[in-house]
Specification:
CATH superfamily of the largest domain: Bira Bifunctional Protein, Domain 2
Helix content: 25-40%
Largest sheet: 8 strands, mixed
Number of domains: 2
Number of strands: 16
Number of helices: 14
CATH architecture of the largest domain: 2-Layer Sandwich
Strand order of the largest sheet: 1-5-6-11-10-9-7-8
Distance between the termini: 50 Å
Order of helices and strands: HEEHHEEHEEHEHHHEEEHEHEHEHEHEEH
Structural class: alpha+beta
Radius of gyration: 28 Å
CATH topology of the largest domain: BirA Bifunctional Protein, domain 2
CATH class of the largest domain: Alpha Beta
Shape: elongated
Length: about 425
């Protein structure tokens, strides 16, 4: 067991690191263009934050959180999602006193949920996400959707389908939930155990059930029961999406799995090679969450996007970006004097932005060339006794084995041109 990662976790090995870095780089670049700033929050928080923020009726809180007591007998939870921590930081740092809206993003933040590991769903996973505080107009809803779609496409994930819905506000949702319960009540004994448990606590989640989906086709829709403010907001969102040329479908079944959502909720789906569909991004508004957690009334909206899932989709489509070369130049040496000169040359090349290295395992020249060939390096500099005495080095092109002599004083300029 010492040499096996815990179930539901995986290593990010050097062979894959460039893929993560590319996704992270595109997130930073796209967000920066829209004025978003990076935030990093702790891996663990006080358990109450998630109970109040995510919602104690959700599957996440009831079944999936990694919760433990620390040595001070405080209940601590490894964060299952990124939003609650960002809201806590927004309140604690009094960011609401700064110019609003406050536009934040996070990159590859680790999250933890205890659930059955499966393809694209791990117990430790990583999210890219956006959180915006203090913007109530539907224009920001459309903005973060556009950013999410740009990020996915920048990483080769296309064939995207946007589904949107509005789940109203507490004012109009209260009456709707009573209507929904009345509709569900006669069929309740025939629904799955999970749906029965949700009936009193959160009946909207029943609409998200895959097992009973066929039985729920005639359920009343929240969209038909919105108050005027929520209806206007949803209409404006559609107008902004049309202005951006973003196609969308209205899906009244989208309710999302966390209690804090209000008004806009959305999912971005991509097709899979086997003809199926896969959700690659989800998000929505949480206009009451900042106040619920002790801050001033502040509207909020955000999305989360799993990095592992993005990589999985890239693998499905065979579009994994090619790994950059680990080295540009390898220096082969023979003898102590040549090794010291090679060591100096490697340092100078690195100063000039060239990825360079030399042998650190005291291998023979033949073994050094064999190692260089395995790294895939294109250029090898050879420094041996004869070359050192003449003040030159040999520059070998590993693709065609051609060698040229270059004066020692010119090799750095030759390699950096």
């Amino acid at each position: 067991m010492l040499t096996q990662a815990p179930k539901g976790t995986q290593d990010m090995l050097p062979q894959q690191s460039h893929r993560w870095q590319r996704i992270e780089q595109s997130m930073r670049e796209i967000c920066a263009l829209a004025g978003y700033r990076e935030i990093r929050t702790p891996v663990f928080e006080h358990t109450e934050l998630f109970q109040r923020g995510v919602g104690d009726t959700t599957d996440v809180v009831q079944k999936e959180m990694y919760t433990f007591e620390d040595k001070g007998n405080r209940s601590i939870t490894l964060k299952p999602e990124g939003t609650a921590g960002a809201v806590r930081a927004f309140i604690e740092a009094h960011l609401y006193a700064e110019a609003l809206p406050c536009k934040l993003f996070y990159v590859s933040t680790p999250c933890f949920r205890y659930e059955k590991p499966q393809s694209g769903r791990l117990r430790q996973f990583h999210q890219n996400g956006i959180e915006v505080f203090g913007a109530k107009d539907a224009s920001v809803d459309a903005e973060i959707i556009e950013i999410a779609m740009k990020l996915l496409r920048a990483n080769g994930i296309d064939g995207l389908k946007l589904n949107i819905n509005s789940i109203g506000c507490p004012a109009c949702r209260k009456a709707y939930l009573e209507k929904l319960r009345e509709w569900l009540r006669p069929m309740l004994p025939g629904l799955c155990k999970t749906c029965q448990e949700r009936f009193e606590r959160n009946p909207m989640r029943i609409l998200d059930c895959k097992e009973d989906a066929a039985k729920l086709t005639g359920a009343p829709a929240m969209l038909d029961n919105l108050c005027q403010e929520c209806a206007d907001h949803f209409e404006k969102l559609q107008q902004y999406l049309k202005a951006l040329g973003i196609e969308y479908s209205i899906d009244p079944r989208i309710v999302r799995g966390l209690d804090y959502y209000t008004k806009t909720v959305f999912e971005i789906i991509t097709d899979t090679p086997d003809g199926g569909e896969l959700t690659v991004c989800g998000g929505g508004r949480y206009d009451g969450l900042v106040e619920e957690l002790g801050g001033p009334a502040t509207p909020g909206i955000g999305f989360g996007m799993g990095v592992e899932r993005m990589i999985m989709v890239q693998d499905m489509r065979g579009i994994a970006p090619e790994a950059p070369a680990a080295l540009d130049v390898f220096v082969v040496t023979l003898g102590d004097d040549a090794r010291r000169e090679g060591f100096r040359l490697v340092s100078a090349l690195r100063e000039r932005g060239v990825k360079a290295d030399l042998d650190h395992a005291a291998r023979s020249m033949k073994a050094q060339f064999k190692y260089a060939d395995k790294t895939g390096v294109k250029k090898v500099v050879v420094i041996a006794g004869d070359e050192l005495a003449k003040g030159v080095v040999k520059l070998r092109d590993m693709e065609n084995s051609a060698e040229t002599e270059v004066p020692m004083g010119e090799i750095i300029d030759t390699l950096t041109k």
